[in-house]
């Protein structure tokens, strides 16, 4: 096997081609958009380059056939609660079903990271935000959500045989849109609704700046502590909203307020992969026409839970039931095209959010796993600590 550093456009194209070659016949696989993968490795588009660097390789056999790929990255902003060592990342892994070949890919990433002072590597993860390309699919080998990793089952063996160990599981839940919620939701919703200072409203595309401000306030209070202390500015939130705007359905993204101050958010989007699976990886003119036609004819029947958060001072007061039922009044209307709801992954270290999912009556739909490999084999992997 030969490993080749990706350092020009032709090799970058082969980096994309490896994934297609090794996954095209795997049931459930949806080809990602080329531009989404390319953006990860473009310093002009990926802000992670401001705080780190990455390298990637392709692997070929003696006949010149593509047999694997891997990327490695160092990001000074990448931290997890409880980390005691310097941790790098590896991802975008693909490999034929051969341990020796996989070991070569892993060793290459490890060596590159060690040269930069890292003592462990997590993978497969993204060089950037955690909502995309994060974790190895270990259960639930059906159509992935947009931006979600997908791989054949044998990848689990390749990782674990090399020495990767469970750092945390990422659990997705799904449910039918028209399913009945537990009685306690209605009881708590009724109690909160009696106070006229509470209100809920869905997002409006013509007021994105206002909702971006609300998003950043809630995120920084409820979530920044779980993202290595990384806060989000109003400008960053507005940029995120503008990216989502073409796909956004106003009626499935909700905010709750107390005396007009933002206290909770429940943001959902139509599953973009329901469109992408018809595009063969290309968001060209034909791909855009497919997207517009499917959107106009309401061909997407699945929405995805992107983020759910309540500011600490309003947690445990029934606000979760309030915002969910206020949103459900609209989302469950027969005029809406959706019949299935799946939540983006929840870390197994987050019991509060796991409880929200199960109390909704949702069932686990798939599990992805973030693995960690310690470079010193005498140092055990410690699981991600449970959030209090």
Automatic annotation (TrEMBL):
It comes from the Bacteria. This is N-acetyltransferase domain-containing protein.
């Amino acid at each position: 096997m030969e490993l080749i550093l990706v350092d020009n456009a032709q090799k970058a194209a082969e980096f994309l081609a490896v994934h297609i070659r090794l996954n095209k016949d795997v049931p459930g696989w949806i080809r990602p958009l080329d531009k989404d993968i390319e953006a990860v490795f473009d310093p002009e588009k990926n802000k992670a380059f401001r705080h780190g660097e990455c390298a990637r390789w392709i692997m070929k056999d003696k006949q010149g056939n593509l047999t694997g790929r891997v990327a490695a990255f160092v990001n000074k902003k990448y931290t997890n609660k409880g980390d005691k060592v310097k941790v790098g990342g590896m991802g975008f892994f693909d490999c034929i079903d051969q341990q020796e070949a996989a070991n070569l890919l892993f060793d290459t990433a490890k060596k590159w990271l060690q040269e930069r002072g890292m003592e462990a590597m997590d993978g497969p993860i993204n060089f950037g935000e955690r909502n995309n390309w994060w974790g190895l699919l270990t259960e639930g080998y059906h159509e992935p959500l947009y931006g979600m990793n997908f791989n054949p089952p044998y990848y689990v063996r390749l990782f674990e045989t090399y020495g990767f160990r469970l750092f945390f599981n990422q659990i997705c839940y799904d449910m039918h849109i028209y399913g009945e919620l537990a009685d306690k939701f209605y009881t708590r919703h009724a109690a909160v609704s009696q106070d006229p200072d509470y209100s809920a409203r869905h997002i409006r595309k013509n007021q994105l700046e206002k909702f971006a401000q609300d998003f950043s306030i809630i995120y920084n209070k409820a979530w920044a502590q779980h993202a290595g202390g990384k806060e989000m500015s109003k400008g960053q939130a507005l940029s995120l909203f503008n990216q989502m705007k073409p796909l956004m359905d106003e009626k499935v993204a909700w905010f709750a307020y107390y005396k007009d101050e933002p206290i909770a958010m429940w943001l959902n989007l139509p599953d973009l992969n329901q469109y992408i699976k018809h595009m063969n990886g290309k968001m060209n003119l034909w791909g855009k026409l497919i997207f517009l036609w499917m959107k106009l004819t309401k061909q997407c029947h699945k929405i995805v839970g992107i983020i759910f958060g309540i500011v600490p001072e309003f947690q445990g007061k029934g606000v979760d039931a309030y915002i969910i039922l206020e949103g459900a009044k609209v989302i469950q209307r027969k005029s809406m095209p959706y019949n299935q709801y799946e939540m983006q992954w929840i870390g197994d270290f987050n019991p509060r959010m796991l409880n929200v999912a199960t109390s909704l009556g949702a069932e686990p739909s798939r599990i992805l796993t973030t693995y960690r490999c310690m470079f010193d084999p005498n140092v055990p992997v410690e699981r991600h600590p449970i959030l209090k």
